[in-house]
Amino acid sequence: MSNHQPNHNNFTSKIGLILATAGSAVGLGNIWRFPVLAGQNGGAAFLILYIFCVILIGLPLMVGEFIIGRHAQSNTAYAFSKLTNHKIFKNIGRFGVFTGWFILCYYIVVSAWALDYLVDAILGRFGKLSEAGNAQVYADYFHDFITNPYLPVIYTIIFILLSHLIIIRGVKKGIEKFAKFLMPLLFIIMLILVVFSIFTEGAQEGLTFLFKPDFTKITFSTILTAMGQAFFSMSIAMGCLCTFASYFTKEANLINTAFKVGVIDTLVAVMSGIIIFPAVFSAHFAVNSGASLAFIALPNVFQQAFSHLPTVSYIISILFYFLLVLATLTSVISLHEVPTAFLAEHYKISRTKATSIVTATVCFFGTICSLSNGVLSDITISGKNIFDLFDYVSGQIFLPIGGLLIAVFVGWSMDKDIIRNQLTNFGTIPGKGATTIIYLLKYVIPVITLLIFLSGLNIIKL
Ligand code: PFF
C-alpha cells in the first residue's frame, strides 16, 4: 500500500474543468429536490434564502475543498493526510470518500427511477395513464414500480454500469469529454422546456410563486433546509470537489471557478422551478406535494397542462426525464470517481480494477436500497427503511460533520501560505475575495454547520 498517486490526471481545458465540476453539482438536487423544497417552503422566499446560503456557505466551502485538492494533487483521502498530522483532520478525506460512496448507493436508486420514467415517457405510458382520468393512477403506478422486486434493481444496475463505462476511460477521455457534451445538451433541453413552460396557462401564477417572496413563510427550520440543500446541490463534503480540484490545471482560478460552478448550479435549480411550477399550477396541483413531485405529480401535470395537445405532452415528458437522466448521470459519474480515484491511487491498482470494485459494491448496496422500498421494506431502523436511512444519515449527519471539519481545518489549521498560494496562483492573480472567504470559513460556517447538525439530530430545537 502506498500513499503516492500514480497516473494522476488533469483536465485539459478551462471550460472542461468548469463543466465537469458543474456536472457533478447539477443533478437530482437541482431538478428533483430544489423544486420540492421550494414548493414546501414558500417558493420565492426559499429561493432568496437558498441563494444566501450558496454565497455565504456553499461557495467558501467549495473554495476550501478546491484549495486542498489542487494543492495535494491527489485523491481526497490522501489530500488531507498530506496536509496535517492532526488525527481528526487527517481523516476528513477518508470520511469524504466514504460519504461519496455512501451517497452513491442510494442516489443511484433515484437515478434508476429517472431512467425508467424516461423509458415510460418514450413508450407513451403516461398518456395512457391519463385516460383513467384520475390522479391516483400515477401514484399507484409509481408505487407498483418502486416496490417491484426486479425492475428498479435492473435499472439501478444499468445506470451504474453506464457510469462505469465512462469512468473507466479516465479523466480526460471520460469525465471531461462527456461533461463537455452532456452539459451544453442539458442546457439546451432546459431552455426548450422553459419556453414551453412560460406558454402554459398557469405560467403567471407559477412564476409569481417562484419569484415573488412572502417572507412570513420563513422559519428557522426553513433556513436550515436551505443550507442542507446548498450542501447537497453543490456537492460539498462528499470528497468530490476535492478530487476534481486535483485534476485542475495550475492556471485555474479557484475562486472564479467556484463562482461559475455556483452560478450554473443555482441557475439550473431556478430553471427547474420555472419548468415545474407553471405546469403544476396550470394542472391545479398542490405545489407542496413533496418528494413524489417528479415521479407522481409531474407525469400527470405534463398531460394535464397540455391536455389539448397530446403530442406536446408526449415530447415534454420525454425531454424532462431525459434531462433528469443526463443531470443525474454527470453526478453519478463524479460520485463514482471519488472512491475510484482513492482505490487506484492508494492501493496502486489499475483504474479498471478500482472502478470495478466501486461498481460492484454500489451494485450490491444500491440493490439493497432499491429493494428496501419493496421486498425489504420490513427492515427498518427508527421507523426508516434502508433507503431513507441512507438519505437521512448522509444528509443530516455526514454532510454537516464533513462541512464543519473542512471549514475548521481550512479556517484554523491549514498553512496560510498554501491557502494564499492556491488562491493567487502563487502571486500571479489577485485572488479577490480571499479574505472574506477565509473569514466565513473561520467563524460563520462552523457555527452554522454545527446548528444544522444538532437540529438534524433533534438535539436542539430551533
Ligand atoms: N450535487 C448533486 C445533486 O445536486 O444532485 C449530488 C452530488 C453529486 C453530490 C456528486 C456529490 C457529488 F459528488
Give a verbal description of the structure.
This protein is an all-alpha fold and 462 residues long. The chain has one domain: Hydantoin permease, CATH 1.10.4160. The chain contains 20 helices and two strands. It has a two-stranded antiparallel sheet. β1 and β2 form a beta hairpin. α3 crosses α18, α3 packs across α20 and α6 runs antiparallel to α16. It is globular and about 65 Å long. The termini are far apart. The N terminus is likely disordered. The site of 4-fluoro-L-phenylalanine has 15 residues, from α1, α2, α12 and α16.
Structure, briefly:
Helices cover 75% and strands 1% of the residues.
How many individual helices?
20
Number of strands: 2
The radius of gyration over CA amounts to 21 Å
Strand content: under 5%
| Biggest β-sheet description | 2 strands, antiparallel
Question: Looking at the structure, what is the overall shape?
Answer: globular
- Annotated CATH architecture: Orthogonal Bundle
Distance between the termini: 46 Å
Kindly report the spatial arrangement of strands forming the biggest sheet. 1-2
CATH class: Mainly Alpha
Identify low-pLDDT runs: 1-7
Which molecules are bound besides the chains?
Answer: 4-fluoro-L-phenylalanine
Q: What is the name of the CATH topology?
A: Hydantoin permease
